[in-house]
Amino acid sequence: MIARFWSRLKRVLLYLFIFQFVYIILLRWVDPPITMTQFVSWVTGDGLRRDYVRADQISPYLRLAVIASEDQLFPAHYGFDWKRIQEAMAYNKRKPTKLRGGSTISQQTAKNVFLWQGRSWIRKGLEVYFTFMIEIVWGKKRILEVYLNVIEMGKGVYGAEAASQFYFNKSARNLSRRESALIAACLPNPVRYKVKSGSRYMQSRTSMIQRQMMNLQSDPTIRKLIENR
User: Distance between CA 123 and CA 129 in Å, rounded?
Assistant: First the structure.
């Protein structure tokens, strides 16, 4: 009886592994149908605004802004910024009531596409696996494209096109430098930090992101990611 149970369990796990591996490969070219975060947002009544677009339909300014804001080493690392993770862990140990994240764009993409929100060790372990896989299978340009299509940019607002239409009534391809920086400024917590709140924090963070964009825009590895080629 026990032997039969383990045999069936191994078979189920094998099928699940094959399915997720094929799914990862498929998403190299196909947009994710819906993420767990988006589904929860829709079910709980927060709404679901999203409109997937290609990378060349997103302003290079926004691509540059999220790199400047969220992960300046994105072109260079292999999914993980270990120094930043260690700094975040040290900070969280000192201030456990004000947690700081150290996730890269790759990690955030893996979490949003394949997993659920939370801080459990199981979810973190799965996040490491999926981050490793998309770095190998997708590559940086595809990771950035998916990130900009699935990330939450306001309550019930997901992706660059939906955010651009919601906040500025224009296509994501036409976002200005400042508009892009404003959207990127809300990403630490898009529900708490409003794109058009006009708060001192948002003004300060937007200005900081614009300065970082100026510093990074001449980097050849970043230019390869943000230019339409």
Answer: 10
Provide the CATH number for the domain around residue 183.
1.10.3810.10
**Cα dihedral sign for 163, 167, 168, 170?**
positive
Q: Is 162 helix (H, G, I), strand (E, B) or coil?
A: helix
What lies within 8 Å, CB to CB, of 72 at 6+ separation is 212, 216
DSSP state of 46: S
Q: How would you classify the pairing of strands 49-50 and 157-158?
A: parallel
Has residue 101 been placed in a domain? yes
Strands 49-50, 152-154: pairing is unpaired
**How many structural domains is the chain composed of?**
1
For residue 176, the enclosing domain spans: 56-226
Please give the structure tokens belonging to residue 182: 């404003």
Residue 65's alpha-carbon distances to 12, 45, 159, in angstroms, are: 43, 30, 14
Residue 13 lies in a domain: no
CA 102, CA 85: separation in Å to the nearest integer? 5
pTM: 0.89
Nearest to 32 by CA among 111, 128, 126: 111
Interval 122-152: pLDDT, tens: 888 899 999 999 999 999 999 999 999 999 9
Angle between helical axes of 121-137 and 140-150 (0-180°, round to 10):
130
Residue 81: the pLDDT is 74
